[in-house]
Structures are given as structure tokens and as C-alpha cells.
Amino acid sequence: MVVSQSYGRYQVIRLNCNKEPFTDRWVRLAINYAIDRETMVKSLFGDVTQPANLVMAPWFKYGPSNIKEGYKYDPDKAKELLVEAGWKDTDGDGILDKDGEPFTFDLIVPAGEANADVVAPFVQAELKKVGIQMNIVTLESGTAWEKKKKGEYDAFMHHSGNIPWSPQGLLQQEHYSVMGGFKHYSSKELDQLIGKAFTTRDEAERRAAYDKIWEILQEEAVCVPLYDIVKVVIFRKSVKGFEFPPTMYETGIEKCEITPW
What we know:
Structural class: alpha/beta
Largest sheet: 6 strands, mixed
CATH topology: Dipeptide-binding Protein, domain 3
Strand content: 15-25%
CATH architecture: Roll
Helix content: 25-40%
CATH class: Alpha Beta
Distance between the termini: 7 Å
């Protein structure tokens, strides 16, 4: 018997939206269109898990359930957006360039990051197809996160960590300029919405604020969600009463299901 359980922890690539070339929304969108998540999951994980195309798990209590369509694989659209952003292969070497500079960037991967040894090269190959050179830089975990905190990175791979009923951690660390230490995209509008979501006592206002927050983050393509990191356990059919061990991510999970194969 093989069973799996999702905690809604997505492996994602955070793009440093304060640094070229990721200050350009077209570029961020292009990268999301360039990655075939379906093939990635099928070829690397045998469909044990699911691809992620939203900035957070939609089944979280305050997650982006209002967004009905996530990022799709469309390499032609990715190429069009890159051209609109001014990136062209002027010297025929297969790598796009702009103002004499090639489109190359470093992806920082903390040592030990779940499945990064196979996922990062897959993403690298996908981006190469549209003319982007991504260099994989694996660093000791503490060093990697210190660079992330200081903003000394182009892109950063990690697995998101949020309790299903409380997305405040992600928003506070990554997008709320008033607080947090890992911000990579923020705006006055987001600050106002996040502040309202954190403080209002009115449930309808809170829900509306979160919905707008997710719409902004999805439209701005501030990160590259990849897939849902699930827990998988294999045991004999004679085993009875198995339950996944408790973690903080089980708190408030109403829609979490154990799926048998």
C-alpha cells in the first residue's frame, strides 16, 4: 500500500523582484510560462504529487481559492514576452541578450533542499529552451538564507512553510514592508491589504483582503511555484490503523486526504 498526504508546502523559486532582470513583470511571467510542470512531476515523481501553478495552496483557509486559472506551460508565450521585454538572441549563441548583456542568473539552493538535485536541473533545461541561462549555486543552508535575508540573490529555491489557516508567515516575511526580513516583492497597495487582513475583525473584509492579495501576487508573478511536496509512505496491506505523524501543518487541515494507489 502506498499513501500520500499533502500539507500544501510548495517548492518554489523566489525571484528577487528588486533586482534586474526580475524587476520586469514580463520576464517573471515568461519564466512561469516556460516551465512544463506537468512533465516535471510525471518524469521526476511518477505523478505521486501534483504540479503547483498558484502562489499558495488554494485549499488553505485563506488561500487563493478565488483564482481559477494558474500558470500554464506555454513556451511560445514565454518567448513573446521576453521579446516584448527587449530580450533577443542577437549573436546566435542560443542565449538571449539585452543592451549587450546575456540573460543569465544564479539560482541559490540551500544544501539539503528537498529534491532540488533533480528539480533545479529540470528547471534549468526548461529555461535554456527559451534562451535563459540559469546557473545552479548550492550553498550551505545558513549561508544561503543569510544571502536571502540580505537580498544578495537573483533567485532562491525553497519549500514554502505555512500553516493552512494562517498565511501570515509568507506575507509577513516576503511581502509586508512593515515587518519581516526576507522581502522580495512589496508595494503600498500590498502593505495596506496585508495590514487589513492581519488586523480586521470582520471576516468578510479579511477574506476580501486576502483574495485581492493573491490576485496581485499571481498577476505580478512574484515567484515560480513548482510542485506540492507531499509525504509518501509505503507499507504492507496487513498494516492497520496507519496515521501520518503529527506536524504543525496538520493544524486546521480539513481538506487534507490520504490518497491510496
